[in-house]
Amino acid sequence: MEVDLEFVVGQRWVSQSDAALGLGIVTGIDDRRVTLGFPAADEERTYAMENAPLARIRYQPGDAIRTFDDEPLTVRAVEEVDGLLVYHAEDQGGDIREVPEVRLTSHVRFTDPRQRLFAGRFDRNAAFRLRVAARDHEARLQASPARGLIGARTQHLTHQLSIAGDVARRYAPRVLLADEVGLGKTIEAGLILHAQRATGLASRILIVVPEPLVNQWLVEMLRRFQMAFSIVDSAAQAELAEAEEEAPENPFEQSQLVICSLDTLTNSARLRDEAGQAGWDLLVVDEAHHLDASDERDDAPYSVVSGLAERIRGVLLLTATPEQAGVAGHFDRLRLLDPDRFSDRARFEREQGQYAEINELIEAVASTGPDHPDLTPRLRHWLGDSLDALVAEDDPVQAVSDALLDRHGTGRVLFRNTRASVSGFPERRLHPLALDCPSLYRDSGSHRGEAGLTPEAGHAETDWLSEDPRVAWLERTLAGLKGEKALVICARAETAEALERYLQLQAGVRSAAFHEGLSLVERDRAAAYFADTEQGARALICSEIGSEGRNFQFARHLILFDLPVTPDRLEQRIGRLDRIGQGDTIDIHIPYLADSSQAIQYGLFNDGLDAFARPCPAGMPVFERVQSDWLSALDDPSRSPDAMVRTVREQCDAMRQALEAGRDALLERNACRPERARSLIEAIETEEQSPELHAFLAEAFDIFGVETDYHGPHSEVVKPGDHSPLGPFPELPDDGLTMTLDRATAVEREDLTFLSWEHPMIQALMEHMTATELGNAAFVTLSVKGLQPGTVLLETLFRLHCPAPADLQLPLSLPVTSRRWLVDVNGRDLSSVLPHDRLNNLSRNLRRKTAQEALPQVRPGVETMIDHAEGFAASELTVIQDEARQRLEQQLGGEVARLKALQGINPAVRQSEIDFFESRLAAGQEAIDRAELVLDGLRVVITA
Ligand SMILES: Nc1ncnc2c1ncn2[C@@H]1O[C@H](COP(=O)(O)OP(=O)(O)OP(=O)(O)O)[C@@H](O)[C@H]1O
User: Fold this and answer.
1) CATH topology of domain 12-110
2) Binding residues for ATP
3) Cβ of residue 896 lying under 6 Å from some atom of ligand 1
4) Which residues belong to CATH 3.30.360.80 in the chain?
């Protein structure tokens, strides 16, 4: 094979970085880009011509080729016509046929080590070692439960890894991440996205968030997970349209990872369409409680997201307060995720009444096992005929419990951790203070009713700023904090703006405002100013938009300038400070106006729900149930609020008990499975701390001429050497980068690059070592007693090759793997007598010239040994294929069984969905039948 560089439609090229794509065909060329179809992988890729990682395939006389209908031929001559090759090739009957290159099979492999060895193109021994190591690590990591979860710059928290470990492994996960405020849903989502990308389950990801959170997401994804998202907004769209007036490109297609605000999509029909057409594997929507299905306009948030969710196979919705807008809204979001399971709202509501019974049944299954005769009738009642298959699974207790959780709870779809089950949260200290209600409000009656929660609303700014006692109190309180930072939250943007101006100009407090009247950039600037520990603002005055999603846990004083209407909103506000990373007790300051609806609201929250001191899961359901009485209590000054407080408290106690026994108990079972999470964390830490990574990198740096210098404890500077070809490290800056392999150091020192097996730089290195020919042919000498000098052995390395469309997700059942055999000319397998490491220790390099001279003599023996090794590989392949078929059957068979069981309850489950999984099963099996163990490396060993 040779390489040349002119593109013509119909030519055959191979991707150097991803040989698994098979042989590509040039299908399109424009002035800068070339598009190739890869029929073996059912993919199309477009490359910039200038630096396309492609190699032209031109077979030579003597080479074996196959046509697309799999006819074997031998090349006898090659002719070139207008840039396209025509092979004159001999068939098995001895006839010469003309085969245009376009007719060649796409299922091909390249850079055959045999061809390289016999052509005398050896690599250094170190390169062979690195190749074997890369294959071993690749196979180990592929099979590791830690896969995709290594190298995140986060603390390993059990409740997060429990969820991430479960969801990240799913094909097309559709889940609601609903941890209580501040427990790390963004981090859970990041872990899932990272793992889905690392495992190839997803590559195109769209994140949709409220506008104020766009940058925070961008930064979190980059600094914690090394995932570089691009923002699409109307400005980006305008820019593209201007640059390419003729046919403006779809801005969502410019990047694999995109963040876009929900407002951008609701405001622009065109961007909505483009987002829908851009083809995604995963959609993430933060603060999903805003999605309200009762608003049916095309541009309403629910319609926009459900339009996307219908087209995108994986969907993660995030909300800390899933029931904030009521149970109906909660149901609608679950329906959006899994319409088969959540099709009937009345049934869903009935089910909620049965949660305690399901929970009790799961407990009984855990204690006696599902086949206990007392349980069978009850289990059959809930699970029907599917019970028999579940009981027959490897872990029947788990299988039956999961099925109960999924089909009669919200098991598969909803994950919620609560503070009650996650330790390490700070205490909350309350500072309520009743202030006199000023005549300004009393005279106008603006202190009553729901509107009385923000009584300043109808008054001139100068009036309320001077008369409302909360303003002077705020000024005094901030002064009393002696330089400590405080987050001030109020409901209205106008109030926030006025207060901030007042504090800044009248009181001389360094402050910033954060509200919807500011642009995105201005808001992020304000948040950064507040976060700055040296010269930063001492107070950030937020409207309600600051009460969602933002990370302000570097402050510990929260000032609630007013109180929100609902308990969930209150929890969102407190959650800005009460979140992971908050090391101090939180001081919550609550000024309220005596004898006003603020005082009543304070009493209902505090004495009725106890919602300031701790999160109150019963708060929202109780509020919904008594909402009209609650709001009229705010309205009516003549009625004593005590009776209402009592009602709320009683309902809250009863609801809390019911939730604890039912919904919360079920959710807890599902969300955090501590044992599993701990063993996952152990697996991740074993990989992160592995000395092998250090050794692997040291060898790679040596081969590619990268220099390293000590920088400090656990850190080194790496930079390109003088004559370095850079190989897999093209992005290494000239002045180098400072790296650490230690996670704790990386979490503390964000300026260091955290290298792990899953860092893009190491991934590129692994790919370089496994997808190119480097290191696949070597010669070595060995001194060992007991073997006659001049004896020739052959170390062979095989890798599994099985091109299949990416969406089949074959690696889930057929993981990448490699095999090594050390054989002698008599076909003895010496692999365990002389393992690879031992052979490395005992062997020395042979000079290239000497090896080339020895080649003609050893070649016949080596060819025989290759045959022997291929024999071993052939029988091993059948074992690998059998295991893969079983795994595939288990995985997709389980999906089919679930859908059939759901079909019994819900006739809306379509047969076509069941057929889809069955056809995937058939396609997967066909692909497994085509798998091969392919020779991937050869090292000739001559004893000295
Ligand atoms: N494992 C972790 N390691 C380090 N920091 C973390 C971890 N988990 C969460 N954090 C930090 O804790 C804070 C809260 O996390 P996050 O924003 O993901 O919570 P959330 O559940 O999405 O909050 P909200 O309900 O307010 O949207 C963030 O500052 C985040 O960076």
Assistant:
1) SH3 type barrels. (2.30.30)
2) 179-186
3) no
4) 691-756
